[in-house]
## 1
Amino acid sequence: MQQYKNPVIPGYNPDPSIVRVGEDFYLVTSSFEFFPGVPIYHSKNLVNWELINHCLTDEQQLPLAKARNSGGIFAPTIRYHDGLFYMITTNVDNGGNFLVYTDDVRGKWSAPVWIKHKGIDPSLLFDQGKVYFCSTSLQDGKAGIALYEMNPQTGQLFTQPQIITYGSGGKYPEAPHLYHIGDKYYLMIAEGGTEYGHMETIFRADNPYGPFKACPHNPILSHRSAMGSPIQATGHADIVEDQNGNWWMVFLGIRPLEHAMLHNLGRETFLAPVTWNSEGWPVIEDAGVIKLDMNGPLPQPALPVALSFEDDFSSVVLKQGWYQVRNPVTHRYQHSDMGLILIAGDETISDKNPTGILIRQQAFNISAQTELSIIDLPESAKVGLTAYYNTDYHYEAYLTRCEDKIAVCLDLTVHSIQAQVACVLLSPLKTISFKVVADQRYYTFYFRTEQDWIQLGKGSTAGLCTEGTQTMTFTGTFLGIFAAQKALVCFTSFQAKQLPTDYHIAGLPLTENKPKLIQDENYADAPVNLP
Ligand code: 6LW
């Protein structure tokens, strides 16, 4: 048995689906309004996962112009059959259910194959020459899981939808996966909704159309009664057998902020070993409650994880892990020998298609910093570093021009409240660096034009949490760089790294929510617009 830590894929990585090919495991997660879509992770030990590609990498596969916040791409399923990988998912704002396929999981996937079924959480089972398609379905106003037979190359559905279960009584029966294990067909679904009442239930039958019998100890996984657990909302699972005959479950969960029912890191991917009891039902851990520190018969030893990401923008193509909000306006991004040039139009960071690139925030305690050179900074233009949830929830430290002066400012946007909480006038400059340090209480922003980091201000972590958003959302906080309102800037570096949980910002005590005033001869007059 090996020890490992959950979540195995931290940060906003919800609705995981997994497949094994030989000794290689591949896992996909939802991606909503972010581009590229449906990340593909690879692992050999189920604990260390590498982001290797995305299933949806062009606008034909992933039209996001109409995607609302947390719209776009909902839950995916990945399966492998006869040398081909299939990924089936739903674009809830443009076209509905579709699949793409490839013979090279690290290469380009096919154009979409559209499927005429209204529902979400589609899944596939290749079984004895047939291909089954299941998904949520509303029949006579009642939510259940529908099953069809289909042709995955054309998307044609051969049969009428047949409801095979309405679940065990929890609301929102969804996230179905059908498995043929031994001489039984197992149907596993999520119920209760993807929040704190989430649970995973399983049923089985002698044939794929049922009748299905419920597992006596449903839910097989849930934290709905796990008071005080640092993990909540577990559900939306997929299972896989490893090459040693051991079974594993991947599923989503959240890690709320301490003493709060708020989470900013999104729904993350967790792992648990599955055992089968004498009646042939799956058992997960201690009555379906899992822990951060786990044990299991991993197929290969787990390696220590150190979360970090850096980019000097020397590559012509954006590094895996960078995301844009909806489809990128490609002419706004140019590679140069110096770094990545952002050419902003009139858009602001609050618009549906901001100019900027983002990485998932994958730890509570993390720092990110960037260095940039100004090419042109017209009046009111902005360039800088952001902690971004979606168009209505974001914090950014930036350089701007007001009249004939330049300044560094910190803006906080939560719901319809947009506040400039700091603004410090600077002498003319060409390069500047920004830094954000995140913990469970604040995102604290700094800037530097010389040696020392100077604290600009901070925003509450609580302001960038899923539970606090005005509409139901499904994503998590990102960290990244942006340009707005006709700014022309070259970003020369970006680094992010996880910090120890007891990290104190060396040499820079956390002052209250006012910037440290700079009475330094390097800076022009006293700051303006201070609260
Ligand atoms: C996912 C579905 C769900 O498709 O949320 O609340 C959707 N349940 O299973 C997005 O994650």
## 2
Amino acid sequence: MAVTSIDSLLAERGGVRGRVVFLRADLNVPLRDREVSDDTRIRAALPTLRRLLAAGARVVLASHLGRPKGERRAELSLRPVAARLANLLDRGVSFCEEIVGEAAKHAVEELGDGQVLLLENLRFHPGETKNDPDFARALASLAEVYVNDAFGTAHRAHASTVGMVAHLERHAAGDLLRAELEHLRVVREPERPLLCLLGGAKVSDKISVLEALAPHADLLAVGGAMAYTFMRALGQPTGASLVEPARLEDALRVLEITEKKGRRLLLPFDHVVAREIAADAESEIRAEIPDGWIGVDIGPRSAASFAAEARRARTIFWNGPMGVFEIDGFAKGTEAVALAIASAGAHSVVGGGDSVAAVNRLGLGDRIGHLSTGGGASLEYIQGLTLPGVAALES
Ligand code: ADP
Ligand code: MG
């Protein structure tokens, strides 16, 4: 893999002093009341940013946040991220409400060596996710050097991750992106047995991954809302739980693959059920989900069983909370799994924004082998796929 590192970039003749470096980072952080509520991803982006600034680069920092679908949405502005970044860096961070065009060019011209400018949310422009060539060219025209440290979007061929790269002669992978690739190789080429724990809400996003992981993992343990689509596919009662009816066949196919390959797929066999998804909702522990009740977390016996599997594994990959962990009463399954992974002697990787947030909330971050910032990207990489954002840096 011939991806240039920051080290090589800085060692090149002239380095980056006085150069405008476009740094594509992953600053897609959760916001609450227009303030950053978890700055894990901002902190993760700091090492590369600091090295570029220390080397005298004029950094144009860019990211997406949420899914504004090509429209300006005040509640998805990156402005609060600029404020938190300034705080963490302990220096001024300029912010430009425009992404491309005259105003953006002017803001770049104002930069001095070792200074940073954050552009507004890339996805406010419809050209970003479409990888529109004009938008890609306009982005590239802001800078001389391109650095991608956004592992979280490396699986997307967008203007800022793929389109603009060819227009800039010098490009490199940031430290975070390189570290991600290195750590995820532990799961891509695992010491066995490999346990994959999958949860969260988005079956449709993750079903292809499940399919790819099914033959790769020795054991798949499925929790979170994802489990109910599998349970429904097997004809088990799911009450009013979140089920994706369009994915029932996919779920059956995953079950078939695991069976054919002699792998195991473990589903929860007891559940925390509630009348509604709310902190003050009535809730119970049940082996079967009754009509009208919603499964909101795996039950204590299932959690203990998942934890026991974690103790037996040599490599563990976890993506997606086991329940609606944002609500304390429905967070026990997620907590039990997080604790089991932290105390297991296995190589461990936790991927996904919400899963990483859960680990950090429990103060277990230091006890996990690697916290991966990219959900979908990690998933694609560990199944052995080529990430377009990485491939663009190789050419
Ligand atoms: P990650 O960000 O780690 O990849 P996801 O975004 O796929 O994880 O899923 C996280 C979301 O899944 C959380 O907001 C959580 O509340 C939700 N979730 C988990 N279990 C359930 C459930 N049983 N019912 C509804 N939502 C759930
Ligand atoms: Mg998420």
